[in-house]
Design a protein that fits this description.
Number of strands: 2
Order of helices and strands: HHEEHHHHHHHH
Keywords: Coiled coil, Golgi apparatus, Membrane, Phosphoprotein
Oligomer: single chain
CATH class: Mainly Alpha
Number of domains: 1
Helix content: over 70%
Low-confidence stretches: 4-28, 42-90, 93-106, 370-375
Subcellular location: Golgi apparatus membrane; Golgi apparatus, trans-Golgi network
Largest sheet: 2 strands, antiparallel
Radius of gyration: 54 Å
Strand content: under 5%
InterPro entries: AH/BAR_dom_sf (IPR027267), AH_dom (IPR010504), Arfaptin_fam (IPR030798)
Distance between the termini: 116 Å
CATH superfamily: Arfaptin homology (AH) domain/BAR domain
CATH architecture: Up-down Bundle
CATH topology: Substrate Binding Domain Of Dnak, Chain:A, Domain 2
Structural class: mainly alpha
Organism: Myripristis murdjan
GO molecular function: phosphatidylinositol-4-phosphate binding; protein domain specific binding
Number of helices: 10
Length: 375
Amino acid sequence: MADSIMSKAATMEIPINSNGDTGSLPEDDSLEQDLQQVMVSGPNLNETSIVSGGYGGPAGGIIPTSSIKGTANLRMKSRGVSIPHSQSAASRLAKQTDHHPGPMHHSPSNSGLASEEVSRGVAVEKLDSVKKWGINTYKCTKQMFSERFGRGSRTVDLELEAQIEVLRETKYKYENILRLATALTSHFHNMVQTQQALGDTFADLSQKSPELQDEFGYNAETQKLLCKNGEALLGAINFFVSSINTLVNKTMEDTLMTIKLYENARLEFDAYRSDLEELSLGPRDAAAMVRIEMAQHEYQIHRDKYERLRSDVTIKLKFLEENKVKVMHKQLLLFHNAISAYFAGNQQQLEQTLIQFNVKLKPPGSDKPSWLEEQ
């Protein structure tokens, strides 16, 4: 029926005038009835034909769809592919797939996602640390300006602050001793070198001047003896300078570094203490109580840090004072005995002083670079 309708529709001649109007068309009652029946019952796809040559094509261009369907089924069977013809077959195929899953393969996208998550976690951690640092810096800066302008309170340990001030003054004075002792060493070293050169000149002239041989010889021996004693005194002064340098630039400096950490911890402690006091004076709603609890936690952390560093500073100051007295007692006695023996011309006492304080003299010319180093 559909074939006859389509053929009728395809072979109908529609007259068109010069104005493009179709004009009055004769009504075909049979065609209208056939179209109504197709609309009600639907077309029969098994009987549908495909017109390959257009509306005016020959009859040989019409291909029945039933033949195409059979050919497609044959091709599917020849390739070994079976298509389920019902919903139950499809469900059985899905169940077989569930019971026999294929091997799992980790795609490269999974590892990429894992690395992205790790990098994201690191970035979040860095962001949190920067945020905490910024908050801490803001609170400490606010507390520092409040103390400087007299609007904020600070925690003060009077006894410890006095000891710290004494240490700073002592370090300044010992640095001055170190500077002067270093200058004395440099000048005395130049004097010893001059005495040695003068002694060599006297010895050379005693050989070339027979009439003044004895006089030049006496002076040459005196300058050599002074040069020898000068090297011994120079060794004692170098030992004194080295010990003072260790005391000032290592022992005292280490204690002052701990004091600096203690002062920073004190500032942080006062900053969080002031923050907690301000929150405690405000409203007591649920959100405020949460902030007060967090502030109390931060306050306790910085309080423990402050007390720990204060204890460390107290212990280091005590040991530093004991070490300073012990070191300076030995070094001042060495300096006094060596200077006295040298200017008294007592070579034996000078040598005993060096042995007593375990001062080892460097051999002559040890400070000069070797000929390999000069190349």
